[in-house]
Write a structure and sequence with these properties.
single chain, alpha/beta, Arginase, Chain A, 2 domains, 9-stranded parallel beta sheet, 4-stranded antiparallel beta sheet, 31% helix, globular
């Protein structure tokens, strides 16, 4: 793993952490400083990385700067009774070209993933999701991306990789390791109908803001199936998170974002998380920096409370329920450890999609199957694997 890309945390921020209570995160986290260098990563579970790249953040000039304001707010918080080890590796600065930044991010993130360290990325434009996705190339596995965003960000492949078109590059470029994409919180009037139709045609998943904000627990099985979680801070309403030039009156509330971050944390599968489009120049009394810091806290809390009942467990640790639906028999599994539910698609042995044969679901999906309604996510997944 090449650490030459990384600049240490600013001396002022590092000094600030030392003035905090001995019980604060500023003392709990191992910090990359000029004086002490890169922290020892043995046994580290989570690594925080800032990426100062905002050149492709559309209509949000200034994003990628001011990351240390989030750090200061995070360091001031107190950890729970956690058993996880956390390191702050500092920042990746802008490269001479944006492709240089993507390369550095991809290389560093890939190295962390190979060591089973979960990166928390603080950006920068959401186009950095592309570099995060490419970091999985060396793992040779299909991945699922969940985006928390009011827009799908397909744009056009001719636009290149930007914060509003990066998804087209992910879908179209080879090697194509994307198994599923899910959007949480899209607002219909911000998305062309052709993009909404494309999401359906590709058997991707999309959940409108009104659908999930009324019952935020609906996002748990979606995030349980994610490898990469990408959060555009513009998905939060402007009154709650003003530090984004594209923020709008409607969006998630701050506590919704924290709940989403915690659900991502308790997922045994989520292996990287990114917060993007933070623009400090527009922040009001560090309100957005505080919110992102608190969302990170909830993610850390979630990781500490992972139950490891999937994919690490075996089917012996589940209760199995078989439900005849039309010409199919749907197998449902309920974890004895967490009470969470999965449904199964039967695949041939050594099928390359075997990792995706168990689909997170809810108890309501099981009840719907008993009413002869095939859950939508089961049907969409079947279309992708057959």
């Amino acid at each position: 793993m090449n650490f030459d890309y990384l600049f240490p945390v600013d001396d002022v921020v590092a000094a600030h952490s030392m003035l905090l209570s001995d019980q604060s995160l500023g003392h709990y986290i191992s910090i990359h400083t000029k004086q002490h260098g890169i922290p020892e990563l043995t046994n580290v579970k989570i690594a925080i990385i800032g990426i100062e790249e905002g050149r492709s953040a559309i209509d949000n000039k200034g994003t990628g700067q001011g990351i240390d304001f989030i750090r200061k707010q995070l360091y001031e918080l107190y950890p729970g009774n956690w058993m996880i080890s956390i390191a702050d590796l500092g920042n990746i600065p802008q490269g001479n070209d944006i492709e240089d930044t993507y390369y550095a991010a991809k290389d560093l993130l890939s190295g962390l993933l190979k060591q089973n360290i979960i990166p928390i990325i603080i950006g920068g434009g959401q186009d950095l999701t592309y570099a995060n996705y490419r970091a999985y190339d060396t793992l040779e596995q299909m991945v699922n991306i969940v985006s928390i965003d009011s827009k799908f960000d397909f744009g056009s492949i001719q636009d290149g990789i930007t914060s509003q078109s990066y998804l087209s590059s992910i879908v179209m470029e080879k090697p194509n390791n994307l198994f599923n994409f899910s959007n949480i919180g899209y607002q219909t009037f911000f998305n062309p109908q052709e993009e909404i139709d494309l999401v359906n045609d590709l058997f991707f998943d999309a959940y409108r803001l009104g659908e999930v904000s009324k019952k935020i627990e609906l996002v748990e099985p979606i995030l349980r199936d994610a490898d990469i979680v990408s959060i555009d801070i513009g998905s939060v309403r402007n009154s709650e998170a003003p530090a984004n030039n594209n923020a709008t009156p409607n969006g998630f509330y701050g506590d919704d974002l924290c709940a989403i971050a915690r659900y991502a944390g308790i997922s045994d599968k989520v292996s990287s998380l990114g917060f993007y489009e933070f623009n400090h120049s527009l922040d009001n009394k560090n309100q957005t920096a505080q919110l992102i810091a608190q969302a990170i806290w909830y993610f850390l809390e979630g990781v500490n409370n992972r139950t490891h009942d999937y994919p690490f467990g075996t089917k012996d640790h589940y209760q199995k329920f078989m439900v005849p639906v039309e010409d199919e028999v749907l197998n449902f599994y309920k974890s004895n450890k967490s009470g969470r539910w999965w449904m199964e698609i039967n695949l041939n042995v050594n099928n390359k999609y075997e990792r995706h044969s168990l689909i997170p679901c809810t108890y309501q999906d099981y009840l719907s199957a008993n009413e002869q309604e095939i859950p939508d996510r089961w049907y969409k997944t079947l279309k992708k694997v057959m």
